[in-house]
């Protein structure tokens, strides 16, 4: 196992690659993006908007996939106010909400004056599949994430709105199975967040295919017939979650720090993915499996943007990255009606003991792994 010499990303992250000098792929991408002619890319975006603006007369001419987070504000601003499109916001409803998230959602619609189509998933199905995904994959919200990616495609096909806008290309920017730079988001179906898992795993005498419809991608034939054209906004504009947050706050977006509602343990920031309480239990599962979660991910982004030193992030990773916020866990377990003692048994099953060890009853990075993290070096597992 080794850590990037520039940021704090380990090679245990799925699909992560390093060069011969010990620098991770996302750090190299961040440097390459500094050479992009962004004015030229903006003109390409304007041409794309010109192609689709008014394509359906007075009806919607594009779909924006949005959750009412910081990036949603930025995407809506660009397409509604800068490019003068008539977007339809398409979202999958959270299974629980923070008060801050509810404010941000309502404010998004009011601030920008947009219509929204919200899919609320069947809670019986969600709870059933969350429990299965927890026990079988160690990825509790797989079904929810799959619907987030699939449902906007479905809506676009059914409403005949070819242009679908996503925020950042997570594969290209942060590492994934598809690392070529492209404006097209057509391969979202195969990224690691919504990774294909055989449906047979999820079906039983209570759950059939008709019950999981929102998470089923349209067929290739349906996509081609509808001339579906999903795009990443990050291809056309420099992408920074931090800067998107700063912009969103000028339009009424609030962070958890702003509202004082909740200070999450295990986080560098209080502005990303703050609309749901229990959802990020799913993200925390990366720690026992791969030895990192949100402090590592956000800290690495901040290092690449020059917002913080590697040394400071290293200490924050050791101090915070292993923590699973108690409020977050309680909310998730209450939703799926699951005992905490059984949850930790599942965690123990998935924990990679080459990377993590139990100290004081909780999973932490092993001491030799912490040392490799500090030096940006390698450790034999």
Outline of the structure:
With 381 residues, the protein is of the alpha/beta class. Helix content is 45%, strand content 8%. The protein has a domain at 38-235: Rossmann fold (3-Layer(aba) Sandwich).
Helix-strand blueprint:
Elements: H1 25-33, H2 38-52, E1 62-65, H3 70-82, E2 87-92, H4 99-112, E3 115-119, H5 123-137, H6 142-159, E4 163-166, H7 170-174, H8 220-226, E5 229-232, H9 241-250, H10 256-259, H11 281-284, H12 286-290, H13 294-304, H14 310-320, H15 326-336, H16 340-350, E6 356-359, E7 362-365, H17 367-375
Parallel strand pairs: 1-2, 1-4, 2-3, 4-5
Antiparallel strand pairs: 6-7
Helix pairs in contact: 3-9, 13-14
Describe the 3D structure.
The structure is a single chain. This protein has 381 residues and is α/β, with parallel strands linked by helices. It has a domain of 198 residues: Rossmann fold. The chain has a 5-stranded parallel beta sheet with strand order 3-2-1-4-5, with helices on both faces. The termini are close together. The mean pLDDT is 95.
**Mean of pLDDT:** 95
Q: How can the largest sheet be summarized?
A: 5 strands, parallel
CATH architectural grouping of the domain at 38-235 = 3-Layer(aba) Sandwich
Low-confidence stretches: none
Radius of gyration: 21 Å
- Report the structural category: alpha/beta
Q: Which descriptor suits the 3D outline?
A: globular
- CATH structural class of the domain at 38-235: Alpha Beta
Q: Summarize the amount of helix as a percent range.
A: 40-55%
Strand order in the largest sheet = 3-2-1-4-5
Number of strands: 7
Distance between the termini: 7 Å
Roughly what fraction of the amino acids lie in strands? 5-15%
- Reading the helices and strands in chain order gives HHEHEHEHHEHHEHHHHHHHHEEH
Number of helices: 17
CATH topology of the domain at 38-235: Rossmann fold
């Amino acid at each position: 196992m080794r850590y990037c010499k520039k940021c704090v990303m380990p090679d245990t992250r799925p699909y992560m690659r390093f060069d011969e000098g010990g620098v991770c792929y996302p750090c190299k991408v961040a440097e390459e993006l500094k050479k992009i002619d962004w004015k030229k890319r903006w003109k390409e975006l304007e041409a794309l908007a010109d192609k689709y603006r008014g394509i359906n007369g007075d009806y919607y001419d594009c779909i924006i996939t949005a959750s009412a987070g910081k990036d949603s504000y930025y995407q809506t601003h660009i397409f509604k106010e800068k490019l003068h499109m008539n977007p339809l916001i398409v979202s999958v409803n959270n299974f629980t909400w923070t008060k801050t998230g509810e404010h941000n959602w309502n404010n998004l619609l009011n601030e920008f004056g947009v219509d929204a189509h919200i899919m609320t998933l069947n809670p019986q199905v969600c709870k059933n599949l969350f429990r299965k995904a927890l026990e079988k994959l160690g990825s509790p919200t797989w079904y929810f994430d799959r619907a987030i990616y699939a449902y906007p495609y479905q809506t676009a096909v059914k409403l005949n709105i070819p242009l679908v806008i996503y925020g950042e290309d997570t594969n290209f920017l942060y590492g994934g199975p598809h690392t070529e730079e492209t404006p097209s988001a057509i391969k979202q179906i195969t990224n690691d967040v919504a990774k294909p898992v055989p449906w047979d795993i999820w079906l039983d005498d209570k759950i059939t295919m008709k019950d999981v419809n929102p998470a089923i991608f349209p067929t290739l034939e349906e996509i081609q017939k509808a001339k579906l054209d999903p795009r990443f906004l990050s291809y056309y504009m420099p992408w920074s979650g931090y800067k998107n947050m700063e912009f969103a706050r000028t339009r009424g977006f609030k962070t958890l720090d702003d509202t004082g509602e909740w200070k999450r343990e295990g986080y560098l920031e209080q502005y990303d993915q703050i609309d749901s309480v229990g959802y990020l239990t799913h993200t925390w599962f990366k720690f026992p499996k791969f030895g990192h979660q949100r402090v590592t991910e956000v800290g690495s982004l901040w290092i690449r943007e020059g917002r913080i030193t590697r040394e400071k992030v290293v200490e924050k990773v050791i101090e915070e990255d292993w923590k699973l916020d108690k409020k977050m866990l309680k909310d998730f377990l209450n939703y799926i009606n699951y005992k905490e003692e059984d949850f930790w048994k599942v965690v123990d099953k998935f924990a990679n003991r080459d990377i993590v060890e139990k100290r004081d009853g909780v999973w932490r990075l092993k001491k030799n792994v912490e040392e490799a993290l500090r030096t940006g070096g390698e450790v034999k597992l």
